[in-house]
Design goal:
Elements: H1 8-19, H2 26-33, H3 37-46, E1 50-55, E2 62-66, H4 77-87, E3 91-95, E4 102-106, H5 116-134
Antiparallel strand pairs: 1-2, 3-4
Length: 135
């Protein structure tokens, strides 16, 4: 059983869908082209500007990654919102770098200070120490 490759018109249409209309969902592209999946996936990989495929963390669908959407992790804005709303409640215990106080923060953050005032205080302390070392 051999798989029929896409025609030039279908490849041009695929290129327009990805780069002109900004459709990056693999499922949507397959639906629009209307054909077997393997030749569509192969044609997508061969397009100039396509880096590869990624998986949406919310729905686990494939996303076409191009040079224009390299940092895109979600297939749509709704899935991005759902994902962060469900994962926002996960917190981690962190110790402030300045005062040593324990504080909770969201798991996707990397704060090292418990507050802005602690960060400013630490920054000033570092500046003072650097001035003393220069003398």
């Amino acid at each position: 059983m051999s798989i029929i490759p896409l025609t030039k018109e279908q490849i041009n249409y695929l290129d327009d869908l990805i780069f002109e209309e900004g459709i990056y969902s693999y499922e949507e592209l397959v639906k629009r082209i209307g054909g077997p999946r393997p030749p569509i996936r192969k044609a997508i990989r061969q397009l100039k500007g396509v880096v590869g495929f990624a998986t949406c963390p919310q729905c686990k669908r494939d996303i076409v990654v191009t040079i224009f959407n390299r940092n895109q992790k979600f297939c749509c804005i709704e899935h991005k919102k759902k994902y962060f709303n469900t994962h926002r409640k996960k917190t981690k215990l962190t110790i402030c770098k300045n005062c040593g106080k324990e504080f909770y923060q969201y798991s996707f953050r990397n704060n090292v200070y418990c507050s802005c005032s602690c960060a400013a205080e630490h920054r000033e302390m570092v500046k003072r120490e650097q001035k003393e070392l220069k003398k």
